[in-house]
Amino acid sequence: MRKNMSESKAARRNGRRGQLASVALILIGLVATGGAYAAFSSASATASVDLSSPAVIDEGQKLFAANCSTCHGQQAQGTANGPSLIGVGSAAVDFQVGTGRMPMQMSGPQAEQKPVQFTDEQTKALAAYVASLAPGPAIPSQSQLEDGSVSNGGELFRINCAMCHNVAGAGGALTEGKYAPELKGVAAVYVYEAMLTGPQNMPVFNDLNLTPEEKKDIISYLTYIQENPSAGGLELGSLGPVSEGLFLWVFGLGAIVALTVWITAKSN
User: Fold this and answer.
1) Contact, 199 vs 190, CB < 8 A?
2) Quick one: pLDDT at residue 44?
3) Which residue ranges form the domains of the chain, and what is each CATH number?
4) Residue segments in the chain with a per-residue pLDDT below the cut of 70
5) Taking a C-beta distance cutoff of 8 angstroms, is the pair 124, 94 a contact?
6) 164 a known binding residue?
7) pTM
8) What's the number of CA atoms in the CB half-sphere (13 Å) around residue 43?
């Protein structure tokens, strides 16, 4: 009798554990499936946005009227508070809205980067609407962002970009409260769009200034220095010749003085 009761209790415990394990596995499966579906749906939706679609353009026009027309005008013709967007192309909109610089929270020397206000689909719809108003620079394809020459990109970056952004892409101060932003962690598409459209105080590097291949090379260089920090040794904060000169002045000159004192003491 006791043996039968013990076996019955053990069976119930095993049954409960089996049921809990089954529920746990089902929950894990649902979470994993849901996450994978959400990621796939998001990627698919982004990839399938057709900027020439009348429905996408119409959606972008509605978003523009509700969020952008106060500064840029109902027809994007510009006002006293914001420039005309006719002819800026989809690349400019994708950069400004995709990085959170637009809509601006307040006027200032330049638009500050902040959390993005729109989904990727909404950003693309806004870009499609503005692009429909007049021809302009287009959002680059993925093939325009990959497999460039790091060495050539480094040379081009030092010649064209380092005077503002620093040779390591650490950014730097400009005049009148303006600044060149840090380039670490910036998506390749936004780097390309910035070169193509010249936001803020940045000059426009069209395809006559820098070819698409050269833009790709610069992006490859920036990717390399992000993945391989301090490739040349001690970076000293990546502040350039100022920090390097200070280092030599303090430690180099200090070592020379100490050596001179030691030699003088030994000779006496």
Assistant:
1) no
2) 37
3) 51-139 (1.10.760.10), 142-250 (1.10.760.10)
4) 1-48, 230-244, 247, 268
5) yes
6) yes
7) 0.70
8) 6
222 annotated ligand-binding residue: no
Is residue 24 marked as binding? no
The two three-digit tokens of residue 33, written as one number: 């499936």
Burial category of 215 from C-beta neighbours within 10 Å (exposed 0-12, middle 13-18, buried 19 and up): buried
Rg (CA), the chain: 29
What are the CA-CA distances from residue 122 to residues 24, 86, 144, 155, 174 (Å)? 37, 19, 23, 37, 33
Cα 47 from Cα 216, distance rounded (Å): 21
Q: Tell me, what DSSP letter sits at residue 111? A: P
72 is in an annotated binding site: yes
pLDDT at 21: 55
DSSP classification of residue 82: B
Amino acid sitting at position 137: P
DSSP, collapsed to helix, strand or coil, labels residue 79 as strand
Residue 161 marked as a ligand binder? yes
SS3 55: helix
Angle between helices 188-197 and 89-98 (to 10 degrees): 130
pLDDT at position 38 is: 41
Q: What is the pLDDT of residues 163-203, one digit of tens each?
A: 999 888 888 888 888 899 999 899 999 999 999 999 988 99
Q: What is the pLDDT of residue 176?
A: 86
